[in-house]
UniProtKB/TrEMBL annotation:
Source species: Candidatus Methylumidiphilus alinenensis
Keywords for this protein: Antiviral defense
Gene symbol of the encoding locus: cas5e
Name this protein carries in UniProt: Type I-E CRISPR-associated protein Cas5/CasD
Domain of life the protein comes from: Bacteria
Pfam families referenced in this protein's UniProt entry, alphabetically: Cas_Cas5d
Length: 247
């Protein structure tokens, strides 16, 4: 038996960033490991420039996510005006100050993807002694130090996360225990279209390295979302495994 921290994420909009090239800002259908660690760091009050504490989180927790409802893809054509590089070197306090000199503005065009009405259950477990205990992380998620959001600041949480520490053999067993204590009204509502198609089977994603699971992965995907430096926005590679749940 080992300890797991399990919690849920739901919001009308979420953006789980993938590799962005040029004006394209895609999203994956499930939360990345860096996004989950970012949520925990914000809850604990760890800032992006605190490199050692950020790295302790990255090296201290294993990760798995169950996609209960992947939501619907929303694509936004996004326009933003920003000053040129010379103007941005100045000390600007507000957005109004930034755009006051209209002669030095130029427009950035981008396409940004979101997931609408996605519901995810996340599990963390300790893999080292560097990170805070799972109990500390659960308490922080109950009362976060900084505001939490689902990938972008425009994507706030719509419900409490209900973090809970559980004892189980595998993370899928921890998910099952967690479900017993949670109301199913929201989950059933979001899955109604899938149930009509008999496709309401959850997807599981987890770290390749020594994950406590009894499932056999259907495939392994390389991901570049292992945090290396939050301050410089650098991410390393890891392997993520995937399996389809049972009907």
């Amino acid at each position: 038996m080992r300890e797991f921290l399990v919690f849920r994420l739901y919001g009308p909009l979420a953006a789980w960033g993938d590799i962005a090239v040029g004006e394209q800002r895609p999203t994956t259908p499930h939360p990345s490991k860096s996004a989950i660690l970012g949520l925990v760091a914000a809850a604990l009050g760890i800032r992006r420039d605190e490199e050692e504490r950020q790295q302790a989180l990255a090296e201290g927790y294993g990760y798995a996510v169950r996609v209960d409802a992947s939501g619907v893809l929303l694509r936004d054509y996004h326009t933003t005006q920003i000053p040129d590089s010379t103007s941005r070197l100045k000390h600007l306090l507000t957005r109004r100050d930034e755009t006051r000199d209209r002669q030095n503005l130029y427009t950035v065009l981008s396409t940004r993807d979101y997931r609408c009405d996605g519901l995810y259950t996340v599990s963390l477990w300790s893999i080292g002694k560097t990170a805070p205990s799972l109990g500390e992380a659960a308490a922080a998620l109950h009362r976060p130090c900084f505001p939490l959001y689902l990938g972008r600041k425009s994507c706030p949480l719509a419900l409490p996360m209900f973090p809970l520490c559980l004892q189980a053999e595998t993370f899928e067993s921890a998910f099952a225990q967690y479900d017993e204590g949670q109301p199913d009204a929201l989950k059933n509502f979001l899955l109604q279209p899938l149930k009509a198609l008999k496709a309401d089977v959850p997807d599981y994603y987890w770290d390749e390295h020594d994950a406590p699971t009894g499932m056999q992965p259907m495939h392994t995907t390389p991901r570049q979302d292992a945090p290396l430096s939050r301050k410089r926005w650098q991410f390393g590679k890891r392997n993520e495994q995937y399996a389809r749940g049972k009907q």
